Inverse folding.
């Protein structure tokens, strides 16, 4: 890579983004930027009524991630120092395009581009793919109260939206390198050799 690696770990809810990002941060001695999730005051309401609360939810996430990435740019990217994050800002559009409708979606698109177009973007994205049953199992296992009534139909659509979103990201302007990890084949938590395989791939791409 010509510039210092800015790595993002992505995937649908329950894919293991934060877990893998944390493990890689420790293994590669990289600072970690973690997204704010449970602090969002609209989460519980959103899962009870998506149409009513989606705009408030997405705006909270967007503003928090904007501030995080603005600081990341100042502290690491501008200093040409490597860093890893457990999200890519583009995930905001993946979720918003599904949950928002009409004028709210149009307004959100405008605000998204206004805030993010000049933010630093990852040059390496680790995209974790997983099947519906695996995601639902992991969501139930981690026990977040607001996720316990997660609609499988919503999750199934989210899997499809992520595949489309990652393809769009790969075709965009200055696209990142995308490393796909199949969570059905590589259990990086339970099998150290699987994690080592991922580490080796990431190291090769960081050069």
């Amino acid at each position: 890579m010509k510039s210092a690696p800015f790595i993002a770990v992505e995937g649908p809810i329950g894919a293991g983004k934060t877990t893998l990002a944390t493990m890689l941060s420790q293994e590669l001695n990289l600072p970690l930027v973690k997204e704010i999730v449970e602090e969002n005051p609209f989460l519980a309401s959103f899962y009870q009524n998506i149409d009513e609360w989606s705009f408030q939810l997405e705006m909270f996430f967007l503003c928090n991630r904007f501030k995080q990435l603005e600081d990341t740019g100042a502290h690491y990217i501008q200093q040409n120092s490597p860093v890893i994050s457990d999200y890519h800002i583009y995930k905001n559009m993946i979720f918003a395009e599904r949950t928002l409708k009409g004028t709210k979606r149009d307004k959100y698109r405008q605000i998204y581009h206004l805030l993010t177009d000049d933010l630093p973007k990852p040059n390496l994205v680790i995209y974790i793919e997983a099947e519906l049953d695996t995601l639902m199992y992991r969501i139930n296992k981690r026990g977040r109260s607001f996720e316990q009534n997660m609609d499988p139909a919503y999750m199934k659509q989210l899997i499809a939206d992520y595949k489309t979103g990652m393809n769009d990201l790969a075709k965009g302007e200055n696209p990142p390198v995308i490393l796909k990890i199949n969570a059905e084949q590589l259990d990086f938590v339970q099998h150290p050799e699987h994690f080592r395989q991922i580490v080796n791939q990431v190291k090769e791409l960081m050069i």
About this structure: DSSP finds eight helices and five strands in the chain. The first strand starts at residue 6 and ends at 10. The helical segments are 17-28, 43-48, 50-75, 91-99, 102-116, 132-142, 152-171, 192-206. The domain at 6-202 is CATH 3.40.50.300 (Rossmann fold).
